[in-house]
Amino acid sequence: MFKKIIAISEIFLLVVALIIGGLWIQTPEGNYEPILVFIGFLLLVLEVARRQIKPSEEADVGEKNRPSKDYDRRYLDQPHQCHFINNLPKLKKVVEQSSQELWDSGITANMRQGSYDLINSLQDYWVKLSEFFPPAHFDGKEPREYISEYTKSRFTFHRANMEPDGAGTGGSIVHVMCGGDVIEDLEKMIEETVCMLSLNSDSIDFKDWKKQWRGKA
User: Fold this and answer.
1) pLDDT digits (tens, 9 = 90+) for 99-138
2) In 3D, which of 112, 134, 123, 130 has the Cα closest to residue 179?
């Protein structure tokens, strides 16, 4: 709720700034500069407040509803399990369409949420694929834990990579760009996992699956 209030406040201040800018153009002799500077200061304060509310928002992606460490193994000789793998591209496409609406809004908060929605879904897909492997198979950790830590590390890397002058110097757009890069990372890891699983199952046509996964089929 507080994030929504901040977003509305930012939009309001930007609209006011545009109106004042228009008045300044029409009547240059007016003393509008102090007002614009003050609005700029308020926008900066709102951005700082947003970060303080949930400074580790990206790190928390996928942490909700963490399952227990025990899970039922999945096996490739079970037809419904291969059916799940073959339908992953379709499942992803549905979430992508929903996220695209948020990305197209042009509002930073919405664009970030669109990325988080898709990231959460990709994490769930990868967790289920990892259950084809023995427990604690990846680095001695259970699937959800391993994948959550991987996602956090990719967010950390991309943020640092995009802000060579220090944290916070890239502006709010960095969070949107990081989300896109993390999505690509997760998509690649899922693709590699399915590739390996397909080698042990005649029910998975990886070449066709890959085209669908990349949206080229």
Assistant:
1) 999 999 999 999 999 999 999 999 999 999 999 999 889 9
2) 112
Q: Using an 8 Å Cβ cutoff, are 198 and 163 in contact?
A: no
**How many residues does this entry show for the chain?**
217
Q: What is the DSSP string of 8-77?
A: HHHHHHHHHHHHHHHHHHH-TTS--HHHHHHHHHHHHHHHHHHHHHSTTTGGGTT-TTPPPS--PPP-TT
Asked if 213 and 191 touch (Cβ cutoff 8 Å), the reply is yes
Q: Rounded to an integer, what distance in angstroms lies between the CA atom of residue 99 and that of residue 191?
A: 20
The model's pTM:
0.68
Q: Is residue 150 within 8 Å of 192, Cβ to Cβ?
A: no
Cα–Cα dist 98/82, whole Å? 26
**d(Cα 110, Cα 101) in Å, to the nearest integer?**
9
